[in-house]
Write a structure and sequence with these properties.
With 364 residues, the chain is mainly alpha-helical. The protein has helices at 5-10, 23-28, 66-86, 88-99, 107-118, 127-156, 158-163, 165-196, 204-215, 224-253, 263-297, 303-317, 320-344, 355-363, and strands spanning 50-52, 60-62. It has a two-stranded antiparallel ribbon. Strand 1 (50-52) and strand 2 (60-62) form a beta hairpin. Helix 4 (88-99) packs across helix 5, helix 8 packs across helix 10 (224-253) and helix 11 packs across helix 12 (303-317). The protein is globular, with a radius of gyration of 22 Å.
Length: 364
């Protein structure tokens, strides 16, 4: 059954939209199918790029306005929080394989051990800190990425922003992830401890205070540097490769220009591009992921202790096949959800060519 405009409006915070519109802005609404492209401001110095709201004939979301960033932030919360919570069983097995490879020898045996020792409920141990932590991370990751991408594009200017767009994606995603990991780190520390030490705590409610009593409040950030080491390369790969893959899919694999493709096809491209990007992300960030799991599980442990125990080969390979499956699916789903929400509120999907806008930038 189709969702009516009125019911869909009720699901979206009103502050995302602006109800005021000028005639010049109305003309700009014809560009609503264009993807966001680095440094659009030189084109629209006098007329803001406005996007039609889904249920208000005169309601618009102005590109790169506070309402635009608010929409991207909400999309990031849904994208990261829901997907990470959904793969909690896989994450649980992966963490235990990294910490105790003797007991958790493989993916299948890992699930068997957990089922035998903790039952079906054990597969979702730590889901609350996972949901809260990655929701906070997603809000900062996607919201600040859109902000920094625009900010660095404006600094570079239209010519260099177009020429070095991959560097813009890398810099914007790295800057966003630095902030996002500060939001994630406390919940990640509690999650790993709950998941890898049976009996430590049932979940966040008793796990957080117990962790703070044991290691102090600053102990929640003990894994921040390794987390940056894992997440910053991961996110740089996630955004830059996604933008590049999607652009090339529209350029070489899909004969129809993006703005003429159906929304369902565009969302399919987002998922496919996200999945491939996720495989690259898993490989690049896996050594640091092993370090984060080791440090958050062992009280007082250092990076040197982790390298000594796991070995260099173990850092790169232990738990990698499972993580490739998990992160590939996760990243594909995240981009699918994020772009689905953007379409839901009337924004264009991420990535791909924007021929008309690029042409205007080239003429500037």
């Amino acid at each position: 059954m189709a969702v009516s405009d009125t019911s869909r409006q009720s699901l979206i915070p009103n502050f995302i939209y602006t109800s005021s519109i000028s005639p010049s802005n109305h003309l700009m609404s014809n560009k609503s199918n264009l993807t966001s492209f680095p440094s659009t401001s030189p084109v629209n110095q006098d007329n803001k790029f406005m996007v039609q709201a889904p249920s208000e004939p005169l309601g618009k979301i102005e590109m790169y306005s506070p309402r635009f960033y608010a929409a991207c932030t909400v999309g990031g919360i849904l994208s990261c929080g829901l997907t990470h919570m959904a793969v909690t069983p896989l994450d649980l097995v992966k963490c235990n394989m990294q910490i105790d490879p003797v007991k958790y020898k493989s993916i299948s045996s890992g699930f068997g051990v957990l089922l035998k020792e903790q039952g079906v409920r054990g597969f979702f141990r730590g889901w609350v800190p996972t949901l809260l932590g990655y929701s906070a991370q997603g809000a900062c990751k996607f919201g600040f990425y859109e902000f920094f991408k625009k900010y660095y594009s404006d600094i570079a200017g239209p010519e260099y922003a177009a020429k070095y767009k991959t560097l813009i994606y890398l810099a914007g995603s790295a800057s966003a992830e630095v902030i996002a990991d500060v939001a994630l780190c406390p919940m990640e520390a509690v999650k790993v401890r709950v998941q890898t030490q049976p009996g430590f705590a049932r979940g966040l409610g008793d796990g957080l205070p117990k962790f703070v009593r044991s290691e102090g409040a600053l102990g929640l950030y003990k894994g921040l540097v390794p987390l940056w080491g894992r997440q910053i390369p991961y996110t740089m790969m996630k955004f830059a490769s996604f933008e590049t893959i999607v652009e090339n899919l529209y350029k070489y694999a899909i004969p129809t220009p993006k703005n003429e493709c159906s929304k369902s096809l565009q969302l399919g491209v987002s998922f496919a591009g996200g999945y491939v990007a996720g495989v690259f992300c898993a490989i690049v960030s896996h050594p640091a992921d092993n370090l984060v799991s080791f440090l958050n599980n062992a009280k007082g442990a250092s990076v040197g202790d982790a390298v000594k125990k796991l070995g260099v080969w173990g850092l790169f390979t232990r738990g990698l096949p499972l993580r490739i499956v998990m992160i590939g699916t996760l990243t594909g789903a995240q981009w699918g959800i994020y772009d689905a929400f953007k379409v839901f509120v009337g924004l264009p999907t991420t990535g791909g060519a924007a021929p008309a806008l690029v042409a205007e930038v080239a003429k500037a």
